[in-house]
Amino acid sequence: MNKFIKTLSTDWLSTGIIGILPIFLATNFIAVIVWTLQIPTYTMGLVLGAIAAGLTDLDNRFSGRLKNLFFTLIAFAISSLSSQFSLTHGFFVPLITILTFCMIMLSAIGQRYSTIAFSTLLMAVYTAMIYSPTANWYEHTVLIIIGAIIYGVITIIVYLLFPHRIMQENLALYFEALSKYLQAKSNFFDPDDMDEGNLPNKQLILGQANIVVMSTLDRARASLFYRLRTQHRHSRTRRMLRYYFAGQEIWEIASSHHTQYSTLFYELQNTDLIFRFQRIIELQAMACQQIANDLRHDIQYENQHRIEKALKGLLQSLTYHKETGIKHFHHLQLIADNLQNIENQLVRIADKNADVNNDKKNQQTARLIPENISNFRDMIQAIKNQCNLDSPLFRHAIRLSAVVFISAVIAEIFYVEQAYWILLTALLVCQPNYSATKKRLVQRVIGTILGVVVGLSFPYLSPTLGAQLGLIVASSSLFFFFKAQKFGFSTFFITIQVLISFDVAGFGLENAMFSRTLDTIIGAFIAFIASTYFWPDWKYLNLHQSLQNMLINSATYLRHIIAQLQFGYKDQLSYRVARRAAQNSIANLSSVISNMMSEPKKYQSALDFVPELLNISYSLSSHISTLGSYRRRSHELNHHIEFAAIFFKQSKLLADLLEQMATKSEDTKQTLKDINKQLQDFEHEYASKIDSQSLVLLQQLLLIVQILPQLWIFVGMEKQYNKTHNI
């Protein structure tokens, strides 16, 4: 039986199919009940309950899923009853407005609270959509809760059959993103594209790949964290934790670089080295993709000996070119060392006997930070910290509350029944930023119109109740299948599902079609106007705050690296937290710049400098990561007294300087000149007296110092941009 389930899971069922199994089985179960008992008027309430529960389905262990279901049902019951009561007594508009603000602000606590809170808000709207003054006050709530219970029970059963598939899929997505990141990195060594003018575009592509890595890392971490909270860890979970940590190391190593690429291109253009570098990085990208595939098929990854052979060939070629007197040989050797370090992590993943918990020392560091704030006092403080206009979350909460208020008022004044589709559309379309709202608006309108066009054929088919219920099952399942990646497709299928549900419930398909289209257009228009004119993001401190966070987090990351280089390697939690914060801030800066460049054209003219600002920021992050990649070898460093005195002192001054650039306005040029002079003087005097690794660290520090004047210029441009636009 176990062998059959494994074959079913790995060979027949993809993770996407397993992901929609709960809604497919739940809606089938509901359809059977409705068809058997001939209670079509209950269909919509039951299905909406299952869909709402599906939107709150969060990856967790068994006990965590039970707890999530329990609290979700309580939240749904309160939301639905409140909506029902307010509709009966005429104060639905203020209720839904206040509820919207409160639910959005709960996002400050964490993604899981945000997911449940938003679904709870949708529950109030769903109740309004099926509200009937003649029905009992508890009828719709009971139907919705029953639907949610059906979904919850089925999803737990599916989890028990495939307990590790979501966790492994999230790790697979992470290694798939790492593969694409390494592939983007290999473009810097493309012998057929060595034009220095293409470097900014390559850096932008690398930055976009970095955002995906950051996003998938968070999902993988969350899956692991909720399985590590039990005292007895499953052997598979321990293995996945080893994969996760190895992936983090690969990312840090791959993020580093040891020299200016323009110089590298010039030196290597007539050698075989650039081909070898690119080939090895591409092979390592393929290895990460293979790890992702093996995770999906529950196969142990095996070491790729092609990479070992390629590395051996590279080292032989480096030895040959060293004898011929190639310039800056040590920079090339360091890149080769980096590639070897990535290979070491791949070998670590392939080692069946390696286990992050095998020794007591590792048990102290193999921990993950929680995804959410768990202490009630900290929750309140987290929400209070967001209650100001500098917070995008606070602005979005007020903006969306206004959108909900206007939509609900229009629905109540001008329409009689099933008019809350305006409210639902506005709620789903209105996103925290302008570009995301515009994208969703187009997808929502097109998806709805196509859904209505297809729905026009249903009256002519004269389907039976069984056929209609089958279409509800199919459209609900396809809605969940596409909702994460293809919002337009998901809108198309949910439109069909709602139209059929209205017809089954006796509201009349013909009456619902025209109103669905009109309501969608009105709701989308309200959301677009709000995102464009109500505290639009480009008028606020997004770029300034993101840049400031990047500098501060980079300074903290640098301090942790220096501490490990000085006092010894320890892969403790605090270091990983600092590294993750720095990587997060770079990804956030890239995302903000991407969003700002997609804003209305009249705001883009002042943003000509931001692509180069992003490139310099990535260079800073890469050089700091290079220092971090040497912390494992801290015991090998020749801590020459003079080296220690100059390196650690100037490193700490540099970290302080990064923070000053973020928080103060005084010129830092003289301080940078002083640091640069001391480091260069030391290099000239002691280069032959210190070991090669110490020399590398010194040169990396010099590279950071040399790019900071450029970064300071862009910081000044950003401040001038803020001043010009009254930000």
Outline of the structure:
The chain is 76% helix and 0% strand.
Rg, alpha carbons: 29 Å
Total DSSP E strands: 0
Q: Tell me about the biggest sheet?
A: none
Helix and strand sequence: HHHHHHHHHHHHHHHHHHHHHHHHHHHHH
User: Ranges with pLDDT <50 over ≥5 residues?
Assistant: 356-365
What overall form do the CA principal axes indicate? elongated
Helix content: over 70%
The average pLDDT value, as a whole number, equals 77
Structural class: mainly alpha
N→C terminal distance: 64 Å
| Number of discrete helical segments | 29
Structure commentary:
The chain is mostly helical and 727 residues long. The chain is built from 29 helices and no strands. The radius of gyration is 29 Å and the shape is elongated. About 1% of the residues have low confidence.
Topology diagram in text:
Blueprint: H1 2-12, H2 15-37, H3 43-55, H4 62-89, H5 92-105, H6 111-129, H7 139-161, H8 165-186, H9 199-225, H10 235-255, H11 261-268, H12 273-296, H13 305-323, H14 329-350, H15 360-365, H16 376-385, H17 392-414, H18 421-429, H19 434-455, H20 458-461, H21 465-482, H22 487-505, H23 509-533, H24 542-567, H25 573-597, H26 610-628, H27 641-663, H28 669-686, H29 692-724
Helix pairs in contact: 2-3, 2-7, 2-21, 3-6, 3-7, 4-5, 4-6, 4-7, 5-6, 5-17, 6-18, 8-9, 8-10, 8-12, 9-10, 9-25, 9-26, 10-14, 12-13, 12-14, 13-14, 17-18, 17-23, 18-23, 19-22, 19-23, 21-22, 22-23, 24-25, 24-26, 24-27, 25-26, 26-29, 27-28, 27-29, 28-29
